[in-house]
Amino acid sequence: MNIKIIAHGKISKGPELELIQRYMKRYNRKLPKSNLNTLDIYEIISEEKDYNRKILQKQKEEKKYIILDEKGVNITSVELANYLNTLSNSGIKDISILIGGAHGLPSKIKENAIKSISFSNLVLPHKLIRVILVEQLYRAKCIISNHPYHKE
């Protein structure tokens, strides 16, 4: 299964971008027993209103998508890995994960998501949430592959 992160804004040079690139490089390496293949990030650089309009248009292309939302379900790393593995095993080849702007995602997007996930009850900056998301996706791939990165 291929995963595409669609996010508002662009992350410029800095420690957040370096961490994102590091985890994406790790993620995109082949791991045995994993059915999670590639990870890409698509940044939509525009005002938040334009982003929301574009994401509503993109919704037609993105048949199956997950959203990150502060009111979403809190899940563990293992639960995320199991969920992604279940999606992949059910025949889903591509999934998108949408990250909203400062005011969140439009309600129509939220209503049609297959899952709404929250990584914290705290409101986190967009740069950090991308780092956390990419790291958690790498961790999920490691969990599925029984790679020693994840420790319990």
Chain-wise SSE layout:
Elements: E1 2-8, H1 15-27, E2 39-44, H2 48-58, E3 65-74, H3 77-89, E4 94-99, H4 107-112, E5 115-118, H5 126-145
Parallel strand pairs: 1-2, 1-4, 3-4, 3-5
Helix pairs in contact: 1-5, 3-5
Give the mean pLDDT: 90
Overall shape: globular
Radius of gyration: 15 Å
Count of β-strands: 5
Provide the structure class.
alpha/beta
Distance between the termini: 25 Å
Number of helices: 5
Secondary-structure element string: EHEHEHEHEH
Keywords:
152 residues; alpha/beta; five-stranded parallel sheet; 5 helices
TL;DR?
This protein has helices at residues 15-27, 48-58, 77-89, 107-112, 126-145; strands at 2-8, 39-44, 65-74, 94-99, 115-118.
Please give a structural write-up.
With 152 residues, the protein is of the alpha/beta class. 41% of the residues lie in helices and 22% in strands. The chain contains five helices and five strands, in the order E-H-E-H-E-H-E-H-E-H. The chain has helices at 15-27, 48-58, 77-89, 107-112, 126-145; strands at 2-8, 39-44, 65-74, 94-99, 115-118. Strands 2-1-4-3-5 form a five-stranded parallel β-sheet. Helix 3 (77-89) crosses helix 5 (126-145).
